[in-house]
Amino acid sequence: EVIVPIDIPINLYRLDFFAKIRCKVRLIEKYIPIQEIDAIHAATLFTEGCTARALQKKYGIPFFVSIRGTDSDFYARSMFHLWHMSRSVIRHANAIAYVTPSIKRKMMSKWQYRSLRSKLGNGLVINNGIDSVWIENLHVEPKAIGNPVRVLYIGRFDSNKNVLRLIEAVKEIQKSLAIHLTLIGGDGEEQTQVEQEVKKHYDFIEYLGKIYDKQKLIHIVRECDCFAMVSHSETFGLVYAECLSQGLPIIYTIDTGFDGMYQQGVIGYGVDSYSVKSIKKGLQSIIENYDRLRSCVSTVDFKRFYWPEIAKLYIYIYMNR
């Protein structure tokens, strides 16, 4: 692996999208033998997709695009001056893939792509994979819910991850039901506020910090009853699939990330991330339907999250599109 320095000032690279694309093309031409490239896989629609389209125009190399959450939630929403370039990318891509069904749904609903809905509709949903250690240590056998009910969160403590609203929902439930929230991770602008909540409610909220040992993390996940992460925006959310692999029903956010992967109420519940009431209701629904949810989780085909299987899908696309 070689780290190649950019050949323009960093601020220009960050602020001028067109300069960034030209820079990427120059560096690829300088360091990669173009004549040996049979196909290009662009990992995003806008930044990588525009680079791939530029190389296709110059060298005739076919390219494939994966559309991610940053494409649908940021660029396709706010960066209107780049929409014409993204339309060209979609129009000329040999194939399109989406990380989740919610991203596909969002892209097809956007008015600026209405003339390309047929092409967008033909795109496949190909999930991200999770570390093989989770697949190799599947633990999805049904079990009874704990007393107290143990809710788990793993991730950053920033405004997007929305941990404070999750804490408020748990506090509401705790008034009438024994419940315990375990927090793992940290960093972010809400770190101090989260730690203050832990200190005030140490009897039912605990913070374990960051855990890098996968086997230790797996052990903690198995001890919990459900996983909840109510981010405002997610591309996919690997941690949902990781916790599912250990048998935990999940709380996720509607219309982003994991939403649409399974029908509502099958392996968990989608909630409104801006509503403590909705998050509370989702957690209560898991508690009330726990045995059925846990049984459904045990039937999930985890091959869809296994990188060797995902690679086979991409190879099929490369060979047949």
Give an account of the 3D structure:
46% of the residues lie in helices and 13% in strands. By secondary structure, the chain is an alpha/beta fold. It has two domains: 10-129 and 308-320, 3-Layer(aba) Sandwich (Rossmann fold), CATH 3.40.50; 132-302, Glycogen Phosphorylase B (Rossmann fold), CATH 3.40.50.2000. The protein has a six-stranded parallel sheet with strand order 7-6-5-8-9-10, with helices on both faces. A four-stranded parallel sheet has the order 1-2-3-4. Helix 3 (47-59) links the parallel strand 1 and strand 2 (63-67). Helix 2 (17-31) crosses helix 3 (47-59). The radius of gyration is 22 Å and the shape is elongated. The model has no long low-confidence stretch (mean pLDDT 94).
By CATH, the topology of the largest domain is: Rossmann fold
Strand element count: 10
Rg, Cα atoms, Å:
22 Å
Tell me the span between the first and last alpha carbons. Answer: 29 Å
Task: Report the CATH C-level class of the largest domain.
Answer: Alpha Beta
Number of domains in the coordinates?
2
Q: Which strand-content bin applies to the residues?
A: 5-15%
**Secondary-structure arrangement, i.e. CATH architecture of the largest domain:** 3-Layer(aba) Sandwich
Note poorly predicted spans: none
DSSP helical segment count: 15
Strand order of the largest sheet: 7-6-5-8-9-10
The overall pLDDT, averaged over residues, is 94
In brief:
This protein has 321 residues and is α/β, with parallel strands linked by helices. Helix content is 46%, strand content 13%. The protein has two domains: 10-129 and 308-320, 3-Layer(aba) Sandwich (Rossmann fold); 132-302, Rossmann fold, CATH 3.40.50.
